[in-house]
């Protein structure tokens, strides 16, 4: 079956939010996902980080690409620390632990997953209560709090 082209307005969906100790503070809006659009093979959307906002260290079994559309921040992919600024693109292989944090000006990213549906992307976060040994390891490797 041939797929048809789609045009999606950013106004067609609402932002969702996380704001807690395990996942961090980030807002996102899914734009293309088989659960809400007639599409397959990829899902994508936009994420907004307010000043100092963070998507804490996590992994998922789907490859991801992010592209910074405004602002600045930093990230850790595996054990590599990177500076992020407008126009930067990062590929994250499936299963690789990573995190993003915005600078004082905030940051926006466009993200793409190698998945029919965003709902198929299962996030695994470090839990401060049960993963203390892993958090200590992350802090040793990165030199900063997880």
Report on the structure:
It is a single chain. It contains 1 helix and 9 strands; from the N terminus they run E-E-E-E-E-E-E-E-E-H. The protein is mostly beta strands. It has one domain: Jelly Rolls (Sandwich), CATH 2.60.120. Strands 1, 2, 3, 4, 5, 6, 7, 8 and 9 form a 9-stranded antiparallel beta sheet that branches. The radius of gyration is 15 Å and the shape is globular. The mean pLDDT is 85.
Please state the average pLDDT score.
85
Distance between the terminal alpha carbons, to the nearest Å?
45 Å
Looking at the structure, the CATH topology is Jelly Rolls
Largest sheet: 9 strands, antiparallel
Highest CATH level, the class: Mainly Beta
When the domains are counted, the total is: 1
Residue stretches low in confidence (pLDDT < 50, at least 5 long) are none
């Amino acid at each position: 079956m041939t797929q048809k082209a789609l045009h999606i307005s950013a106004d067609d969906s609402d932002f969702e939010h996380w704001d807690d100790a395990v996942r961090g503070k980030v807002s996102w809006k899914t734009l293309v996902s088989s659960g809400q659009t007639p599409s397959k093979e990829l899902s994508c959307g936009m994420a907004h980080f307010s000043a100092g906002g963070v998507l804490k260290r996590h992994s998922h079994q789907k490859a991801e690409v992010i592209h910074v559309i405004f602002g600045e921040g930093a990230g850790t992919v595996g054990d590599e620390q990177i500076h992020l600024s407008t126009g930067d693109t990062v590929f994250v292989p499936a299963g690789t632990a990573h995190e993003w944090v915005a600078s004082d000006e905030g940051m926006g990213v466009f993200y793409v997953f190698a998945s029919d549906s965003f709902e198929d992307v299962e996030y695994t976060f470090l839990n401060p209560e049960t993963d203390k040994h892993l958090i200590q390891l992350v802090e040793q490797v990165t030199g900063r709090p997880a």
